[in-house]
Fold each of these.
Amino acid sequence: MSSPSKRILVTGGAGFLGSHLTEHLLREGHKVYVVDNFWTGRRENLLPLFLRYGDRLTFLREDVRTLSFSRPVDEIYNLACPASPPHYQRDPIATTQTCFLGAMHVLELAEKWGAKVLQASTSEVYGDALQHPQSEGYWGNVNPRGPRSCYDEGKRVAESLFFDFHRRRGARIKVARLFNAYGPQMDPLDGRVVSNFILQALRQEPLTLYGDGTQTRSFCYCQDTIRGLVALMDTPDDFTGPVNLGNPGEFTIRELAEKILALTGSRSPLAHRPLPTDDPRVRRPDISLARMALHWTPAIPLDQGLPPTIQYFKALL
Ligand code: UDP
């Protein structure tokens, strides 16, 4: 248990990563406020935490676009935003608003209380990357008017706002760029590749492979991501990031399908579907900065992270 205990706001705390982070912070003995509007967050992610840590967990159903939360806090983690393409594309205008207005409101709140504020940014700021692996110095290759732009550009403008608040107003900011987190508590309906493939394999349905499956991703187990976020928050004020948090183990989507078929013992065939517009072809984090500044490195490779994730989906079914 770390001491002294802090008052911490987690926006998006009912979501997949938000609820893992909330659990971690409660376990460390802190008082946690969760703000979530249940756009993609889920009650069932928080219920067990209420049972275990009820007195130190406060939930407020609020939208960060119109955030009225104003209690004193020491730290803010801004995770509120749908993160899977089908979700953030369902209402792209709301997605951009959530990124921008959410960032604005948490920055103002942090300023009011002198709190540290961490932005959960994304590898999507690199877009269809022309540099590989991607390091933080790379400015990215993002289509500003495609179907992914609401998220990619939303996250980019949020970073921009964070750095302007830091330069102009001395905000105590931290920016993490997360690469494809996965693990238990993923929303079964979020349409991401890990959840889709596992559910399809368990149901003996065809695995929907978009494109030829040669595009790559680097999947980071949720506990590793959370450790990285907390390590970043704990850095001195002169370290702002942005810092990549991801697992450098890179796999083609076809390899992922094969791994999931092997681990589930499923006989599902592959069903080819068109590659979505602007789907990045490669993605792998350069994590030299996280290693050096946070002494962080992911501990759980894909082969170890998939079995508990499969177990979680099995239990859901
Ligand atoms: N993908 C796929 N089948 C699916 C869902 C996704 O082949 O059922 C592909 C998708 O086109 C992308 C990769 O898997 O190339 C990762 O997709 P996801 O939505 O999980 O994450 P993101 O594209 O945001 O990295």
Note: The mean pLDDT is 97.
Amino acid sequence: MVVSARIEASKIGVDILRKGGNAFDAMIATELALAVSYPSAGNIGGGGFMVFRKNDGEIGALDFREKAPLSASENMYLDKNGDIIEKLSEEGALSCGVPGTIAGIFSVHERFGSLPINEIFRPVIELAENGIVITKKQSDRISEFHNDFIRINSNEIIYNRTLKENDTLVNINLASTLKKIMKNGKDEFYNGETAKIFVDFIQDKGGIISLEDMRNYNAVWREPHVFQYKNLNIISMPLPSSGGICLNQILKMIEPFDVGQYKHNSKEYVKILVEAQKRSFADRSHFLGDSDFLDVDIKKLVNNSYLEKRMQDFSFESPTSSSMIDFGNIYSTESEETTHYSIVDQYGNAVAVTTTLNSTFGSKLYCEELGFFINNEMDDFSIKPGYPNQFGLIGGEANKIMPGKRMLSSMTPTIVENDGKLYMVVGTPGGSTIITSVLQIILNIHEFGMGMQESVDAGRFHHQWLPDSIRVESSFFDKNILNDIKKFGYNYYDKGPIGRVDGILIKNNKLEGGADKRGDDAAHGF
Ligand code: DON
């Protein structure tokens, strides 16, 4: 089964499985098919993370996150007074990190691929050549960003025109880029003609990514972040994503409260989760950054007695104001567009992949000649310590810009085992809300007995320490509970849907896909 943001991508992934390919082959096909069919987040100009669990129980994680260019510097988005230059880290060529997706898929193929690369690429190239059918949501998205596309791209691009629902959009240039990559491998993108065209394009637009940056880019296999919650073994993304660590902190902080005894989305449940979330996001902003560049004392951050202490001032009687919460003391001895897909194959292998351009259509900068949008991942760094990024996340020294460093992420592709067996494959987009959405999916299923689709459909809420407010999908909530929460002293606000979760639940030898109705997402299987 493949559950992704677009039916075309889910189908292409499943066709690869039907041919006898494994979940890793399907990952490559799905990733590329999303680059064609879901250009607001699917990408070859961005990056992502994969967590896997093989049928023999082997687990691992792949980091194909973008990197800061070698000539990036700490204050590159500040003016001479030290003030942030508005939008510089969010739009256009300077906001782009060195893309990681092509390196990622070739690392996957090298280690686990079972079908030839041509067989995997071909259906995707056909999709780009034959065209995708624009959905209503896509048409709305493209027209919403129409003025940005024109402002940021001085030339014509295929997305500059009105694309109505049911229009077919063909992307010949992307098809020809993919053909070259299929023929010449990863080097085409990082050291070949495509690399040269890409670098010339970026530099012409005022960016700083160089050929040396492209040649130096590498995807990295990492040890996943693994922890236990009750009888579950949770396998999630390590740094440079904060996802696994924060999920661990929050679940461990709430474990003693046995949240299953309360009603789903009741005020008691909201209070416990919100207070744990605040404390974890305060830690995130202070301690977390790329572990290739700094020592993070992860063991101490997820230590049980540390987390118990963090929750000591929790009370059902009154909220702890965020201004009273600082990052914890770990006594260290040493110094709104992404997309997720979940795959389980007929052999029992599972992959969870979250991939992104950061914002919707990334930097909005589109390389027409090569046929793809380029990320604005640089905004995930703390461009000025103490100041919020586009997701309102406050960053510190640990996440400052350094040449070649990876920016801190919240992406949380996660696999859950129950009593040693594969149980859930989940993940979602949503910036900072990714962590708390994954958290709620796991709890919905494990504590409240929901199925995967039911769990994905259920209303979500989110707190990230600062701002000191709860973001809620209010239409899903009982009005009395929202009133009670307000009386209790919490502010809440609604900014529309939270995340688009695509997950698979494995129960009694059956797969249940949950595809998020907040998007055009679709589960497909055989
Ligand atoms: O890596 C991160 O945490 C962000 N770049 C993710 C962005 C995102 O989820 C936007 N989507 N809604």
Note: The radius of gyration is 22 Å.
